[in-house]
Task: structure prediction
Amino acid sequence: MHILFLTDNFPPEVNAPASRTFEHCREWVKLGERVTVITCVPNFPKGKVFSGYKNRLWQAETIEGIRVIRIWSYITANEGFVRRSLDYVSFMVSATIASLFVKKVDVVIGTSPQFFTVCAAYVVGLLRRIPWVFELRDIWPESIKAVGSMGDGFFYRSLEKLELFLYKKASRIIALTHSFKRELVLRGISAEKIDVITNGVDLSLFQPRSKNQALLKKLGLEDQFVAGYIGTIGMAHGLEILVEAAEILQGMPAAGNIHILILGDGARKGVLKRLSDQKQLKNITFVDAVPKSEVSDYWSLLDISIIHLKKDPLFEKVIPSKLFECMAMEIPVLHGVSGESADMVTYHQVGEVFESGDADKLSALISSLNQNSLVLNAMKSKGALAAKTYNRSYLAAMMLASIQKIQTI
Result:
């Protein structure tokens, strides 16, 4: 089977959509399938083309057996609704055209959260008379509304109608959470064509490991209890709480060895750095995003990981992908997200849950775990067990099986 996958994020970008798509496609190639990915030149999240690439009409490369076609799109940083929309629409048009030149395709997949890429998959499926799959990573446009980038007006309602149209027209829907599936069923989409394939972790890349001593020394974190956030610093994440928690901890005599590490880029990073400078915080360090091959070195520095999203009913339906990476590396989690992902943390006993936006609770939990190695070690061992359930290779095989169902209908 020849699978055509449309995505606007792909390695060497290191965000969650890029990692999931690459790891699934790589596993499908190992299983004997032919895979072509159409994407743009790597530029996320700063909107700057990565070294070694140019924003051309068409350029092709092969990555671990995957044929990758990079096409032109309007490029901008991951901020600003109008410019990001132009980015999405330009990729939709370019991807649709480019897809028509890929020979002998059996199925096309479009991945969200923004569904202009999924629109391209629908059109390609229609023009080529092949089935198409909607990979549902997020409920969009509701997620835009949740972060305050769009009001409940005509444009929003129009996008909702388009969203529902795409759900109905998809040959199959791959939802990342059970909450997403329940939402779609309530909106009239047949449960029979929805499969849930959660995010997971590449266990060959993310494993328990000792702290990288050279990196600790470079960052001046020797003998520190490190609480960290690694990932996109976006509008949905509400990471001002990390600066607030750092300020509280800086005023606690017993928390003198606690340091907060933030690694990543995104629309809110500049705001957080300015806020930290204003508060004259000495216990927080910002690090720019690094290549995926280096991310596990930074994960190794963390005694605990902080996962956080703004308080909104929408985010109760998501499962942040970094949760699985933390489990695999035996890093206990302080989880500021309600809903399905919080239930997962509690069920597997891999961390503590706190209410989104509660900096007092977060700082108290950090301080408590700093002084309780027995609890910390118990969470680590539970994480290693839980991670086996979310092995990316196994989940990729499940998704392939779901796609293959279309061929038998």
